[in-house]
Write a structure and sequence with these properties.
The structure holds two protein chains of two kinds.
Chain A: H1 2-11, H2 26-31, H3 35-52, H4 54-57, H5 88-94, H6 97-124, H7 126-141, H8 144-154, H9 160-170, H10 172-187, H11 190-197, H12 202-210, H13 215-238, H14 248-257, H15 267-295, H16 297-301
Chain B: H1 2-10, H2 16-25, H3 28-53, H4 58-70, H5 74-85, H6 93-105, H7 120-155, H8 162-174, H9 177-191, H10 197-200, H11 214-251, H12 254-261, H13 266-278, H14 280-304, H15 309-318, H16 322-350
Classes of the chains: A mainly alpha, B mainly alpha.
C-alpha cells in the first residue's frame, strides 16, 4: 500500500480528481475523470454537432453582399463578414465537415496499418521484423510534408479517400514503432504465451488477446493520426496545392491572398478559421488524455 | 535455458569471415552511416520513379508545353526537354536511372526549367543556408529553453503557477506551426502594428553586404526573427511537457536516492544524475522533430516570405519546375538525414548502452 501510494503522483490522476456526474452514464463518468480530457471531449462533440446538425440550422453563405464587406461582429453576422460580404460564421459551420471526415478517415486507416504491421512484426519476428523496423527507421527520416507537397503536383488529390490513404501510408512508421514496442512487451505475458502454446492462430492472438490490452495505445495513435491529418490537409490547402471544397483551410488561404496581412478589418475573416483549426486540434489532443485513462485500467484504478 | 546453452556452443563454430562481417555490421558508427546512405538512395529512387512513372509524366507535360508555346515539332521539343532534364529519353528506364544516379554522384542536379541557365545546385546554395540557420537556431533555442522550463516545472510541482505554465505548454504543443505563424503575423504585424512586417520580408535587406559586420548580422536576425519565434513557440510546448515527465520519472529512480545518500551536492545531482538521464528520450524526439520542422519550413517561410529552401520549393511546385523540385526535395532529405545521423551519434555519446552491438 505504501509503495503504491508513493507511486501515485507519477500517474497524474490525483491532480484531477474527477467530478462524478450522476446519471449520465459510465462513459461520461469516466471521461470526466480527467478535467482537461473532458473539456476536450465536449469541444470535440461540439465540433461534430456543428458540422452535422449545425449545417442544417445555419444556411450556407452563398450570396455576396458588396455593401457589407469586412463588417465587425454584429447580431446579424455573429462573426462579421468576409471580403465579399458573406457571413463568416456560416462558412465556419459549413467548412468543418470536410476536415472532420478526412481526419476520421485518416485516423482509421493509419491506425489499422500501424496496428496490423506492428503486431505482425512483433509476433512473427525474425527477418520480417528486422526488415520492417529498418524500413520504418528510414521512413521516419523522410520529410513527410515536402514529399506530400511534391506528390500533390504529380497526383490530383481532389479525392478525399485518396488523400486519406496517402496521408496514412506516409505516416505509418511512427504508429508502427509504438505499437510494435507495445506488442513486444505484451508478448512476454503469460496469457499470450499460453495462447501461442495452444496454437490459437495468429489472427485470434492479435484480435482477441493482444488488441484488447493495448486499446489505450490504439486510441492515442488514432487521435495522433487525426491531428497529423488535419495538419497536412490544411497545410496543403493553405499553400493552394490541393483543390477542395470551401473548408477552413481554403478560408485561411482566401483571407491570406485577399490581404489579411494588410487590413486590420479582415482580422475576423482570418482569425475565425485559424481559431477553429486550433481549437479542433486542441480538442482532439485533450480528448486523447481521457481516452487513454478509459482504455488503460491501470491508470484508472491507480 | 536450453536455447541459451545451445547458442553459446554455436557461436564459436561460426566461420571467421562471418564473424568479421558481423563485427562490421554491429559497429554503431558504420550501421548508422549505412542507414543514412541507404535512406538517401531510397528517397532519390522513389522520387525518380514517381516523376517518371506518374500518369501525368512531367517530362511529357513539359514537351507538350513547349510544342504549344513555341509551336516547335515534337522531336525538337523532346530534345530540349531531354537536355533540360539531363536525361536520355530513348534509353530504357533502368539506363536512365543509372545515368541519373551517376549525374547525382557527380553533384549534378540538372538545370532549372523556369529560370534557364541557372543550375539547380546554384539555387540550392543560395537558399538552403537561410533555412538551416533559422530552423537550426529556432530548434536549439526551443530545445534548451524547453528543457530548462520542463525541469523547473518538475522540481516545483507544488507551485501555484505550475498548472498555468503546463497548460500553456500543452496548448502550444497541440497547435499547428503555421497557425502560430499566422497568428503572430496577423496580431504583431497587422492588428497591433508592433513590428514592421513588410521590412522583415526576405532573408536579408537589399544592399547590405554579407560579411562579419554587425550591420549584416543584425540584419539577418531582424529578418529571421519571426520565423525563429514561430519555430520556438510551436515546438517548445512538447519539450516542456516531455522534459517535465521524464524529470519526474528520473527523480524517483534509485540512483538519485543513492546520490542524495552519498551526500552529493544538489547541483551535481540535478545536472549529472537527473538531467542527463531525463534528457535521453528528448534527444530521440529532437531527431524526429528536425525532419518535421524542416518539412514545415515550406509553410512557415511562405507565411513570412522568408527566402529559404521551403519558400523556393513552394515556388518550384507552383510553377511545375520539376528538376528544381526534385533537387530541393533531395537536399531537404539529405539535410534531415544528416542531422538525424548527428543526433544518433550524440545519443550514442550520451547513452553508451546504444553503442553496444544490437542496439535494443
Amino acid at each position: 500500500m505504501t509503495t503504491s501510494q508513493a507511486l501515485m503522483p507519477k500517474t497524474g490522476i490525483r491532480y484531477w480528481p474527477g467530478r462524478f456526474v450522476r446519471g449520465i452514464g459510465r462513459f461520461l463518468k469516466l471521461m470526466s475523470r480527467n478535467k482537461t480530457g473532458f473539456v476536450g471531449f465536449l469541444l470535440f462533440i461540439g465540433f461534430v454537432l456543428m458540422t452535422t446538425v449545425g449545417t442544417l440550422i445555419v444556411p450556407k453563405a452563398t450570396s455576396a453582399d458588396i455593401t457589407a464587406i469586412y463588417e465587425p461582429p454584429s447580431k446579424t453576422h455573429l462573426l462579421g463578414t468576409d471580403s465579399q460580404g458573406k457571413d463568416i460564421l456560416a462558412q465556419i459551420v459549413h467548412g468543418g465537415r470536410d476536415i472532420l471526415q478526412m481526419a476520421l478517415l485518416t485516423g482509421i486507416i493509419s491506425t489499422f496499418i500501424g496496428v496490423a504491421l506492428g503486431s505482425l512484426s512483433a509476433l512473427i519476428g525474425g527477418g520480417f521484423d528486422a526488415f520492417l523496423t529498418m524500413l520504418a527507421d528510414i521512413w521516419l527520416t523522410i520529410p513527410r510534408f515536402p514529399l506530400l507537397a511534391v506528390l500533390a503536383t504529380l497526383i490530383k488529390l481532389d479525392n478525399m479517400l485518396l488523400l486519406a490513404l496517402l496521408l496514412s501510408v506516409l505516416s505509418w512508421a511512427g504508429l508502427y514503432r509504438s505499437i510494435r514496442a507495445q506488442v513486444f512487451s505484451l508478448k512476454e505475458r503469460d496469457y499470450i504465451e499460453a495462447a501461442v502454446a495452444l496454437d490459437l492462430g495468429m489472427w485470434h492472438i492479435i484480435f482477441s488477446e493482444v488488441l484488447p490490452n493495448m486499446l489505450s495505445y490504439i486510441a492515442i495513435s488514432f487521435t495522433f493520426g487525426m491531428t497529423s491529418a488535419i495538419y497536412a490537409q490544411v497545410g496543403l490547402v493553405f499553400l493552394g496545392l490541393v483543390p477542395l471544397t470551401r473548408n477552413w483551410g481554403v478560408m485561411i488561404n482566401l483571407a491570406w491572398t485577399q490581404g489579411a496581412i494588410f487590413f486590420k478589418d479582415s482580422v475576423y475573416f482570418i482569425m475565425a478559421p485559424v481559431t477553429a483549426i486550433a481549437l479542433f486540434q486542441l480538442s482532439i489532443v485533450w480528448m486523447s488524455r481521457s481516452l487513454e485513462e478509459i482504455f488503460n485500467p491501470r491508470l484508472r484504478t491507480g | 535455458m536450453n536455447s541459451a546453452a545451445i547458442s553459446t556452443q554455436v557461436v564459436p563454430q561460426k566461420k571467421p569471415l562471418w564473424r568479421w562481417v558481423k563485427r562490421i555490421t554491429s559497429n554503431y558508427v558504420i550501421r548508422m552511416l549505412a542507414r543514412a546512405i541507404f535512406t538517401i538512395w531510397f528517397v532519390t529512387s522513389l522520387i525518380f520513379f514517381l516523376v517518371r512513372l506518374m500518369p501525368s509524366n512531367p517530362i511529357e507535360v513539359y514537351i507538350n508545353e513547349l510544342m504549344v508555346q513555341y509551336s516547335i515539332p515534337y522531336a525538337e521539343a523532346r530534345d530540349q526537354a531531354a537536355s533540360l532534364f539531363a536525361i536520355d529519353l530513348d534509353a530504357p528506364l533502368y539506363q536512365q536511372y543509372f545515368d541519373y544516379m551517376v549525374q547525382l554522384a557527380h553533384g549534378n542536379l540538372g538545370d532549372s526549367l523556369r529560370s534557364p541557365g541557372t543550375s539547380v545546385w546554384q539555387i540550392i546554395v543560395a537558399f538552403l543556408p537561410w533555412t538551416l540557420f533559422s530552423v537550426g537556431l529556432g530548434l536549439l533555442i526551443s530545445f534548451i529553453l524547453g528543457m530548462l522550463i520542463g525541469m523547473l516545472l518538475a522540481y516545483k510541482r507544488q507551485a501555484l503557477w505550475e498548472p498555468a505554465v503546463s497548460g500553456t505548454a500543452s496548448v502550444l504543443s497541440s497547435i499547428p506551426n503555421y497557425i502560430v505563424g499566422i497568428v503572430l503575423l496577423v496580431y504583431l504585424g497587422v492588428y497591433w502594428n508592433l513590428v514592421p512586417i513588410h521590412k522583415m520580408r526576405g532573408s536579408r535587406s537589399p544592399g547590405i553586404q554579407p560579411g562579419f559586420t554587425w550591420v549584416f548580422i543584425a540584419d539577418i536576425f531582424f529578418h529571421a526573427a519571426l520565423p525563429i519565434l514561430t519555430y520556438v513557440l510551436s515546438t517548445i510546448g512538447s519539450w516542456i511537457l516531455s522534459m517535465k515527465s521524464s524529470t519526474i520519472g528520473a527523480l524517483g529512480e534509485d540512483y538519485v536516492t543513492v546520490a542524495r545518500a552519498r551526500g552529493l551536492s544538489e547541483g551535481r545531482i540535478t545536472t549529472a544524475y537527473v538531467g542527463r538521464n531525463a534528457m535521453l528520450p528528448l534527444i530521440t524526439q529532437l531527431l524526429i522533430s528536425i525532419g518535421f520542422v524542416v518539412g514545415g519550413s515550406i509553410l512557415i517561410e511562405s507565411i513570412f516570405v522568408y527566402q529559404g529552401i521551403g519558400y523556393r520549393l513552394l515556388s518550384a511546385l507552383t510553377t511545375r519546375d520539376y528538376p528544381l523540385m526534385q533537387g530541393i526535395f533531395l537536399i531537404i532529405t539529405i539535410s534531415v538525414v544528416l542531422s538525424n545521423l548527428l543526433a544518433d551519434f550524440i545519443y550514442g555519446w550520451f547513452d553508451p548502452r546504444v553503442r553496444i552491438a544490437g542496439g535494443n
